[in-house]
Give the backbone structure.
Amino acid sequence: MSRWIDLPRTLLVEGPSEPYLVTEERLPELRKFVTGANATWATVDVASASDSGAMIDALKSLLPFPDWCASSWDSIEDAFEEIRQGWSFPLVIAVRGLRSTLETRPHLGLEVVVRLSELAHAFSVAGDQLTVIYVADRWA
């Protein structure tokens, strides 16, 4: 089991539970807190993703994945143990552009939230902390 950090709820927009939302203005403060706690921080922008493969490719450009891992959620599940070995935990992924994706491609936006939540849960069960935070002023 890896080390865990508690996010300061005062920096989040709504409620103490997932999905987490932070404003653009509070993002630098949250990033400073996370990196100060010796956790890994990654930022991914999903605004221009046209499908789930492009979303996964955006993640693959930031974090180490096995070479054989394709750009599908099933492939990520297949590579789970290798991904666990390659990533540094605790890990916080800040997702930008979700509101835009929800407006233009709502199915993809919802898939991103659901799949990243499932991935975070799978890591949690395995003993590693992956926290996903969405950057926006509000959900609607």
About this structure: Strands lie at 20-22, 40-45, 91-96, 130-135.
